[in-house]
């Protein structure tokens, strides 16, 4: 099991995102994808930006792709990629609720993935069950990665813009102020996934705000 000292190295008291942070995260993810050549990749939470170059890399590496988000978001991504000549990617959308039930459906189908990227709602009520639902989907030796480990609802509430893509998706009334100030993804990783599933931080592909956890092989 990972030591407390190692955990603290990845969860420092203060961490500021450096310029070019998103580019650095993309490099981390693409590195993981190169290691998963001929495997399967599950992305949970697609967001507004369609990453065409990443999609082309998936095809080049012969990686089976599955993306989960709202149905409208999935449709937009699929349409854009089709125009770019990238087809045969699987998108599974939810018209109501969250991506949780689609994760359950994937488990019922016996699906397994080499890399899972959970970059969704970032809140306890949404991503705590989603993270646990990912565990049966992750192959031995597989990696699950989380972005926005330092993210808080308090900061989101303070800086939420009317033009933001998912602005209607946050109900701040569900949380007390102290709960808004918690780093929900950090709690999920540090207090649950690492100790309960004996996961280890994959240091080669981890940053303070982006953590990759690797499942041990038996």
Short account of what is shown:
With 218 residues, this protein is α/β, with parallel strands linked by helices. It has helices at 4-10, 21-35, 52-60, 71-83, 100-108, 124-134, 153-159, 177-180, 184-197, and strands at 40-44, 64-70, 90-94, 113-118, 138-146, 200-201, 211-214.
Characterization of this structure:
The chain is α/β, with parallel strands linked by helices and 218 residues long. The chain has 9 helices and 7 strands, in the order ααβαβαβαβαβαααββ. It has helices at 4-10, 21-35, 52-60, 71-83, 100-108, 124-134, 153-159, 177-180, 184-197; strands at residues 40-44, 64-70, 90-94, 113-118, 138-146, 200-201, 211-214. It has a 7-stranded mixed sheet with strand order 3-2-1-4-5-7-6, with helices on both faces. The model is unreliable at 10-19 (pLDDT under 50).
Salient structural properties:
7-stranded mixed sheet, 218 residues, globular, alpha/beta
The residue-averaged pLDDT reads: 88
- The total of beta strands comes to 7
Distance between the termini: 14 Å
Annotation field: number of helices: 9
Strand numbers in spatial order across the main sheet: 3-2-1-4-5-7-6
Task: Look at the helices and sheets and give the structural class.
Answer: alpha/beta
**How much is the radius of gyration in Å?**
17 Å
Main β-sheet description:
7 strands, mixed
Q: What portion of residues is helical? A: 40-55%
| Low-pLDDT segments | 10-19
Shape: globular
- Series of secondary-structure elements, N-terminal to C-terminal: HHEHEHEHEHEHHHEE
């Amino acid at each position: 099991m990972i030591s407390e000292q190692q955990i603290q190295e990845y969860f420092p008291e203060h961490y500021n995102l450096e310029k070019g942070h998103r580019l650095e995260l993309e490099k981390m993810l693409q590195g993981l994808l190169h290691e998963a050549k001929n495997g399967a990749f599950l992305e949970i939470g697609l967001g507004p930006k369609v990453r065409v170059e990443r999609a082309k890399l998936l095809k080049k590496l012969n990686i089976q792709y599955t993306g989960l988000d709202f149905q409208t978001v999935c449709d937009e991504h699929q349409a854009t990629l089709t125009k770019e000549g990238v087809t045969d990617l699987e998108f599974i959308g939810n018209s109501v609720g969250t991506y949780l039930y689609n994760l359950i459906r994937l488990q019922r189908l016996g699906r397994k993935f080499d890399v899972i990227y959970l970059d969704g709602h970032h809140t306890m009520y949404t991503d705590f069950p989603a993270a646990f639902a990912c565990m049966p989907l992750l192959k031995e030796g597989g990696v699950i990665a989380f972005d926005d480990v330092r993210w808080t609802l308090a900061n989101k509430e303070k800086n939420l813009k009317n033009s933001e893509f998912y602005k209607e998706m946050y109900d701040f009334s569900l949380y007390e102020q102290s709960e808004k100030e918690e780093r929900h993804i950090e709690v999920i990783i540090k207090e649950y996934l690492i100790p309960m599933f004996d996961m280890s931080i994959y240091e080669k592909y981890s940053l303070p705000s982006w953590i990759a956890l690797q499942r041990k092989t038996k």
